[in-house]
């Protein structure tokens, strides 16, 4: 690997891990490079909720001294600040958790540490990864624009070359949308494959731990660490791949720039020999967005009850809304939403079995101006279907900002889908 | 209320809360009575994992001094030791969590405190409420016998008159089975109605926070505190109730004493004018026990991965089994189990709509000798169906030990089912 020729910020987690493993790079040097990049960019981008550079360097030196713990040895990983860390506060971007110190790492963090990861700091998030306060993070490509929500800091830090990997979460579109806006690779794995213990609860049926990387191989590396699937799936040839272009029932929110990127992607893959077809989902799927909201708000009612009862004064109006059930969702509404979701999960696995991957927009368009989270409409139904979603950040819009497309497939097809994503990345990335 | 005539240990949470509210009882006196009873019985029964009497009394005096916080003001509640408490260790009965101090209360505990509850201590549990180490708790009715698992200490402490209320959890049969063995009232509410944050994760699809009380009204009081349903449902007349007797697909594990109690219950309700019918569930339900195991073990694989990777030496063989997937469950098995469960949930809600309640055994028979958890076969399918389950501890077996029957109904029928349970309790309890 010709590391000298490229700055650290351009290298993937896989490349950095290999360099450390080969003895070409030591964890402290890498940590310093990340900290330098962060120091340079943080005043503009505000991706970090907590960072202690001295402690990061101390841990990097510790890792440098010991034999490799695993495939992430010495690789810096940022953690979204709704995920518990034993040695750093977990504030959830909420005045209710100022400098909150959980007693232990969330299992997902502990698993990364066991693989040798250098947990570098906590990244900005929408309050409780749910609603309430927006993150203050700016878009790495244009600081007047948002990095999205809720995993704002993690997406921006990875896309900006501050860290090679970061954990996020997704309940609606909290991973994929920021990935599209910032131009980061991301995986929201199949629901239930990574422990959600020690991660702020919003919706049991939807909350999913996810991650960002600098390449599809980076996403696969972390999937392997979490024990998802047995082996990496080698990228198949693009020629012959069966790719479905799915406009999704929420296509009406897409902007011309995204529609153009979507068309370009289909054309490019077709020209490379992939079999391209258009996929219209059955009518029932058009009711999934409404079902998502019923489940989100109803489960959120239970999730925030304790804060409503005990800390009402500091609880954001958005969460009071959930607990008071101001939308008036009934138990019958909730049961209907659960059952529709279950039926669509079964139907979708059958539909998706006919393709190697389904391609669909990750966001309506380029990142909007401001710090709002952006519209999650294009992500929610996939979260509700529990299916794996890979963001490929290979396109650009009219303003030159990133546009991402989501690659999805049946439940538990994560590693196979990552193989297909690698093939598409290799075929299309050089053109972008 | 004629409190003087009955010992504290015989009073329900509702009666105690009313006495405190009326100024007839102060929280410290009640706390002392509980502590005295615990001190007397603990050497024999071993229900407590953590108890600090001086701290309990200090908090009781604090509660005595302030205006009522809510419906549980001054009422002692025990907490199963897999649920986080800010002021007490949470050991999970695991060598991996010796004297572990979480940084905050689990939301379910915080909600109880906000209602005025006096959190009195932590109760013994099966390791992680899952497998591994058994609790050391003995049965209050016969110390040579088990109190069941995993919520052993909570069930025994309530049944033994040590505390009026206790939190448990259920993933298989961890609430209902100990309730049956010990003779406690219990509610496993509909999945998702109470926040599971801060409760040790085993299975996302199954884990449910639950509780024990000394009467059905006690269960309803706690359901109200957790915001389940809008109002208490008044007990309907028993005459005219439509009761289904369901042997369950796991009937073959029942013992003669349970079969006799089941028959007696049906006869007694019939004699009181209830419409009794036998309910045979469709064939698909006979596959739910196997589906439960696939989901439990597969989700457990993700739940214990961090401990497997980081603390292998102290991790019980049972959890290594889950993480290594020694049963070889495939993703296809897991998807099939999820989908079967979803289909049976829909079907069961339809079936249950024809009845006011469905009655089914809570355990195979009386508590067995030893400290084993007992067989959860009769509880698992209801947990998997996500439906509310009330244990009525109104029967006795040949050895004079308690036998419980489960009252169940459709998802979210919790409060209505508690109304029916109150009617049955009032009609049958005096005869027992």
TrEMBL record, chains A, B:
Q: Which domain of life is it from?
A: Bacteria
A UniProt-annotated Pfam family: Amidase
- Where is the stretch described as Disordered? 132-155
Membrane-spanning regions, if any?
Answer: none
Q: What InterPro entries does its record include?
A: Amidase (IPR000120), Amidase_dom (IPR023631), AS_sf (IPR036928)
Query: Where do the Amidase domain residues begin and end?
Result: 31-418
Indicate the family of this protein: Belongs to the amidase family.
| Protein name as catalogued | Asp-tRNA(Asn)/Glu-tRNA(Gln) amidotransferase A subunit family amidase
Taxonomic lineage: Bacteria, Pseudomonadati, Pseudomonadota, Alphaproteobacteria, Hyphomicrobiales
